[in-house]
What does this fold into?
Amino acid sequence: DAGITQSPRHKVTETGTPVTLRCHQTENHRYMYWYRQDPGHGLRLIHYSYGVKDTDKGEVSDGYSVSRSKTEDFLLTLESATSSQTSVYFCAISDRLSTYEQYFGPGTRLTVT
Amino acid sequence: AQSVTQLDSQVPVFEEAPVELRCNYSSSVSVYLFWYVQYPNQGLQLLLKYLSGSTLVESINGFEAEFNKSQTSFHLRKPSVHISDTAEYFCAVSESSGNTPLVFGKGTRLSVIA
It folds into this structure.
């Protein structure tokens, strides 16, 4: 299995509070991604990174920010969590943007009350 | 921009029966196509992919998919399913230029009934 961990694995937070999710890889892959998975919507890309301090927006980036200060870590921040951000969040990594396999982490279940 | 349509959100099938999970894509340029599988409470993992060459691609656990350019489809098939195939299956597409991330479909939940 690819070395990807996500923390925390579960989190319950209140509306309006800031939340940071962490993705850590040990594979030295260039690309890292954050997705959210919701019933009926499948997997939607939030942000991705193509190198340290290099990031780009995905399909559903509003309300989220990311940072990548080291190759191995990719942080997803919800500045002020809303109930619509209740979801399962997956981190993924890959060597190439589109042709190589993406390896997924175990997911973080976030509940915003 | 590319898009993916998975025509069935849920597919129930009896054990040892054949199954087809349908995937159609839309793109103005050449594409790469993928099927990912998600077992309960896990992340996604690659099942098979089409990049070029033979339009029929196979996985190690008996699934196959055929790239049909004229019909813009990449349907996933298995001649005989097992209980262990119960999972959610995602079709994904990307531009063959390699400059854009994958775009995933909404998923098809395959339930194998004993």
Notes: The mean pLDDT of chain A is 93. Chain A touches chain B through 23 residues (CB under 8 Å). Residues 49 and 55 of chain A are 4 Å apart (CA to CA). The two ends of chain A are 34 Å apart (CA to CA).
